[in-house]
UniProtKB/TrEMBL annotation, chain A:
Pfam families documented for this protein: MlaE (PF02405)
UniProt protein name: ABC transporter permease
Assigned keywords, A-Z: Membrane, Transmembrane, Transmembrane helix, Transport
Keyword Membrane: yes
Subcellular localization: Membrane
Transmembrane segments: 54-72, 92-112, 146-171, 191-214, 235-258
InterPro entries recorded: ABC_MlaE_roteobac, Permease_MalE
Main location class: membrane
Membrane topology qualifier: Multi-pass membrane protein
Keyword Transmembrane helix: yes
Species of provenance: Robiginitalea aurantiaca
Automatic annotation (TrEMBL), chain B:
Annotated Mce/MlaD domain residues: 40-116
PANTHER family: INTERMEMBRANE PHOSPHOLIPID TRANSPORT SYSTEM BINDING PROTEIN MLAD, INTERMEMBRANE PHOSPHOLIPID TRANSPORT SYSTEM BINDING PROTEIN MLAD-RELATED
Source organism, top-level taxon: Bacteria
Protein name according to UniProt: MlaD family protein
Record lineage: Bacteria, Pseudomonadati, Bacteroidota, Flavobacteriia, Flavobacteriales
Listed InterPro entries: Mce/MlaD, MlaD_Phospholipid_Transporter
Organism: Robiginitalea aurantiaca
Length: 260, 327
């Protein structure tokens, strides 16, 4: 009985959390259109989330490209399909690996950062002070951050894609003697807008989800300083899960519009 | 303030670079699909497009020149494929070119190959339709392969039967493989063959020697033939031989005629030789003659004793005695 009660409670909490998050998202859309617009804070957040995450994304992307190629090579050689490496890696990275890996990195870095930052502001009552002083904390803190992640993530994804393809091309050049020109010719020969547009579009949603969850967890942080750590932690977990969920939805929807 | 300005500049660089990368990537993909360059459209009607899709490549003599824009089912057996071709290829593709559905390697995606054909043709125009060639589809290949497999199975079954029979010891091949006596016989035969071969080699050597000797003699004969007197003698002998031969030939001809006549029973001799009835008559006549002669002897004897003719016979005897005395 207790077990069932705990399950029911878990479901109820999950639904409540989902509802609160949806309400939070609704408030974001309401606030994002209303002036005044916090451009300066938006640019600052874009810098924090875009430029500051770039190196991490580049290093990760490069390693992903190297590893993917090194791991795939023996199998492709076994099937006599070594020349298909650029096609395979190009499509895998642009369609799926690039956006998802970049989003997960950003979920780890950005969502936790936002969660911790807003959480500590909530705990130290800075947000309350902003409300008292007549500044709309939601617009200043949440809208700017969510917009920044939404706008920056596609750019980070494209940087990650390019550097991952470069890493893969480097391995093909060193191990298989394939020129960079031939490699990228084959990659772009294999790619179509059906690969590129859905991947870029879903990157916006990944960014939105990461920013939204980070802000949500930080904005509603409670229980003192311990809550700050919990907010940062749950923000990462929830953002990562939602990235996969959004990815599934994106693939499902793009399958309708583009022949995969 | 200075710090935030620097941050904005860095952000600007980041955004511009990222946007440029997106644009370049979009351009590269679009360029590959002939979105950003002038194109024209041609069509081709196929019976089967073998899984061809929109966006698949179109190649002219192996060069990517365009993409498949649309695939429309016109009738139950004809599918019209619209191809978007780069405009700079307009002068090269002639209206007698043919389109064939192919694939990029064994496991590659489908594509359309446009192949030029010999002969003069006019450059294709926008909206033109070009001829097509049906491709051997995988199903046909598999059907052929299936027949081959069935034949292979039959052959294998036959082979199995043969090997079993050989194992059981029936047939010549089995005896060759498993019969030790036959193996010994064969071994002996091979040995004999080797001996015979050696003898043959010796015989051939001797023959060669003989031929060599004959060649030497022939050369000696050549030396003799160089003597004009001897040559004239030989010529005369040969002429005599020739005339004798002709006479012999004539004589032989006559003898042949005679023999032919005799064989055919012509003439008395022929009849005597061949006619059995005549032989019987002659034999019969001789018998009568024989008995007639006996009776004639008896008559003559009777005449000798007759008183009318006795004197004649006595006179004859006296003359004979006188003649004998004179001698």
């Amino acid at each position: 009985m207790v077990y069932i009660q705990s399950i029911v409670k878990g479901i109820r909490d999950f639904l409540a959390e989902t509802g609160q998050l949806a309400f939070f998202a609704g408030r974001f859309f309401k606030e994002v259109l209303k002036p005044p617009y916090e451009f300066r804070e938006l640019l600052r957040q874009c810098y924090q989330m875009g430029n500051r995450s770039l190196m991490l994304v580049l290093v990760t992307g490069f390693i992903i490209g190297l590893v993917l190629t090194l791991q795939s090579r023996p199998t492709l050689i076994e099937f006599g399909a070594e020349s298909w490496m650029p096609n395979m890696v190009g499509i895998s990275i642009v369609r799926e690996i690039g956006p998802v890996i970049t989003a997960l990195i950003c979920a780890g870095r950005i969502a936790s950062g936002i969660g911790a930052e807003l959480g500590s502001m909530r705990v130290t009552e800075q947000i309350d002070a902003m409300e008292v002083s007549g500044t709309n904390p939601f617009k200043y803190l949440v809208v700017t951050r969510v917009l920044a992640t939404t706008l920056m993530l596609p750019l980070l994804v494209i940087f990650g894609d390019i550097i991952a393809l470069y890493g893969s091309a480097l391995i093909e050049f060193l191990k298989g003697g394939m020129s960079f020109q031939l490699y990228f010719n084959k990659v772009f020969d294999a790619l179509s807008f059906g690969d590129f547009i859905p991947a870029t579009t879903k990157s916006f949603f990944f960014g939105f989800v990461i920013g939204l969850v980070g802000c949500y967890k930080g904005y509603y942080c409670k229980k003192g300083t311990a809550g700050v750590g919990k907010a940062a932690n749950t923000a990462v977990v929830m953002a990562s899960l939602l990235v996969f969920f959004v990815d599934f939805m994106a693939v499902f929807i793009s399958d309708i519009f583009y022949e995969l | 303030m200075a710090k935030s300005t620097s941050q904005f500049v860095k952000l600007g660089v980041f955004v511009v670079l990222g946007s440029l990368l997106i644009l370049v990537m979009a351009y590269m993909i679009g360029n590959d699909q002939n979105i950003f360059r002038p194109t024209f459209q041609i069509t081709a009607v196929f019976n089967n497009v073998n899984g061809l899709q929109k966006g698949n490549n179109v190649r002219y003599s192996g060069i990517n020149v365009g993409t498949v824009k649309d695939i429309v089912m016109e009738q139950d057996t004809s599918i019209r494929v619209y191809m978007q071709i780069q405009e700079d290829m307009l002068a090269h593709i002639k209206d007698n070119a043919v389109a064939i559905v192919g694939s990029d390697g064994l496991v590659g995606s489908m594509l359309i190959n446009i192949l030029p054909r010999p002969g003069q043709g006019l450059p294709v125009q926008d909206g033109d339709e070009i001829a097509t060639i049906s491709r051997i589809i995988t199903q046909d290949m598999l059907s052929t392969l299936n027949v081959t497999n069935e034949n292979a199975a039959l052959l294998t079954a036959d082979l199995l039967e043969v090997t079993r029979a050989m194992r059981n010891g029936s047939g010549v091949l089995s005896r060759l493989l498993y019969d030790s006596t036959m193996a010994r016989d064969l071994h002996q035969s091979f040995h004999n063959l080797q001996v015979s071969t050696a003898k043959s080699e010796r015989a051939i050597d001797r023959l060669n020697q003989m031929i060599e000797q004959w060649r030497l003699e022939q050369s000696a004969l050549t030396l003799v033939m160089d003597d004009p007197e001897f040559r004239d003698q030989i010529r005369r002998v040969a002429a005599n031989l020739d005339s004798s031969g002709q006479e012999i030939r004539q004589l032989t001809g006559r003898l042949n005629d005679l023999a032919g006549g005799l064989e055919a029973g012509e003439g008395t001799l022929g009849m005597l030789l061949k006619d059995t009835a005549m032989a019987a008559e002659i034999q019969h006549g001789l018998k009568y003659l024989d008995s007639g002669l006996v009776k004639f002897d008896q008559n003559m004897e009777a005449l000798k004793h007759n008183w009318l003719t006795r004197g004649y016979f006595k006179k004859l005897e006296k003359e004979q005695r006188k003649a004998a005395k004179k001698q």
